[in-house]
């Protein structure tokens, strides 16, 4: 019997946690000292939200091996349910931190329900069919939010669907002290922004703990077995529907929590923010960072969120330069020579220990 003194996977996970913690500490110190620009400081919360989105989507695309193009839909469910919860609980929960935590939990809960309802029939599909159906889900959610009217007063929540386009928030029957939360196509306006960088850091850490522990668990090995060979996994008794749904719902819940964080960082938020382009953007984070590579998703999401602001000096050519940089990075990361170079660096830092303890 051989017992490794250091487990390679455990050390890799520890370094991932440590890297995120160090980044948070450094950015917090720089922010307090005014060493970073106001623009970058304002992007810290969105970066945390997008990092969470990238990690959660990597669970579906990289670990499960299924292509989902509707991840922004789960983010939208979390964002607007979180905003409704935070705005309606202002008097009941005066503490912004506690109210934000409750909003994020509720956002994750409702997104998980959406993931279960969508995933149960959809995960029977594969490949392009699954991608098309998840894309349709994201667009349906966007249109439903565009028709949603929500308000709150001392009598509780008032909700209404403006399907014919003839109703307004006035039709909710709010009292004088009532709060208009969601106004249809105008989205959520006058939202109290309570999201913080600290809350974003905690969300990223929770996401890492959930995803990495799931991957290392027996269920995670079953999920990866489905990705590698579905027929072989089914032949040894692995419940395909169960493990696919587990990964999909977990991914949706984390996306919902990130949506709540993102939504409560914006004073005004419309459903159009969570369109097809947002789903593709998050998918780019995952592909650029490497399928199944959690640390790569963190770096890719951070860099690609900050890059457009760094290129603002190029004025109208900013997005053109962004696209060129993105293409060049894609080509470089898929180059065999570059892959070998990064693999050597990785093996040097994460090499297997030479010492072993032999036991009876």
From TrEMBL:
Positions of transmembrane segments: 12-31, 43-65, 72-93, 99-118, 130-152, 194-215, 280-307, 319-342
Compartments reported by the entry: Cell membrane
Entry GO MF terms: branched-chain amino acid transmembrane transporter activity
Keywords: Cell membrane, Membrane, Transmembrane, Transmembrane helix
Cellular component annotations (GO), alphabetically ordered: plasma membrane
Cross-referenced InterPro entries: ABC_transp_permease, LivM-like
Pfam families: BPD_transp_2 (PF02653)
Full protein name: Branched-chain amino acid ABC transporter permease
Species: Candidatus Avoscillospira avistercoris
């Amino acid at each position: 019997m051989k017992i490794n003194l250091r487990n390679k996977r455990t050390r890799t996970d520890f370094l991932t946690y440590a890297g995120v913690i160090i980044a948070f500490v450094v950015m917090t110190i720089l922010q307090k000292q005014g060493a970073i620009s106001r623009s970058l400081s304002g992007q810290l919360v969105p970066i945390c939200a997008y990092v969470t989105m990238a990690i959660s989507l990597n669970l579906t695309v990289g670990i499960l091996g299924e292509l989902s193009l509707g991840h922004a839909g789960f983010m939208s469910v979390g964002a607007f349910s979180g905003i409704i919860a935070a705005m309606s609980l202002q008097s009941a929960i005066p503490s912004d931190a506690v109210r934000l935590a409750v909003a994020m939990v509720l956002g994750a809960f409702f997104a998980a329900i959406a993931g279960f309802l969508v995933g149960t029939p959809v995960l029977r599909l594969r490949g392009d069919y699954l991608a098309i159906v998840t894309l349709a889900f994201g667009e349906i959610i966007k249109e439903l939010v565009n028709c949603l009217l929500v308000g709150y007063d001392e009598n509780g929540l008032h909700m209404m669907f403006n399907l014919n386009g003839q109703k307004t928030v006035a039709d909710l029957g709010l009292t004088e002290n009532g709060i208009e939360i969601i106004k249809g196509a105008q989205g959520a306006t006058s939202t109290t922004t309570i999201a913080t960088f600290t809350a974003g850091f905690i969300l990223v850490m929770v996401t890492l703990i959930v995803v990495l522990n799931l991957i290392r668990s027996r269920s995670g090995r079953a999920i990866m077995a489905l990705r590698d060979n579905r027929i072989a996994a089914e032949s040894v008794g692995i419940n395909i529907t169960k493990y696919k749904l587990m990964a999909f719902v977990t991914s949706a819940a984390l996306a919902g929590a990130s949506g709540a964080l993102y939504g409560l960082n914006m004073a005004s938020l419309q459903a159009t923010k969570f369109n097809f382009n947002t789903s593709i953007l998050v998918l780019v984070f995952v592909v650029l960072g490497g399928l199944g590579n959690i640390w790569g998703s963190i770096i890719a999401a951070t860099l690609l969120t900050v890059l457009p602001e760094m290129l603002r000096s190029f004025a109208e050519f900013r997005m053109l330069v962004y696209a060129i940089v993105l293409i060049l990075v894609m080509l470089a990361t898929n180059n065999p020579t570059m892959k070998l170079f990064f693999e050597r660096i990785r093996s040097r830092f994460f090499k297997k220990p030479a010492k072993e303890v032999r036991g009876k």
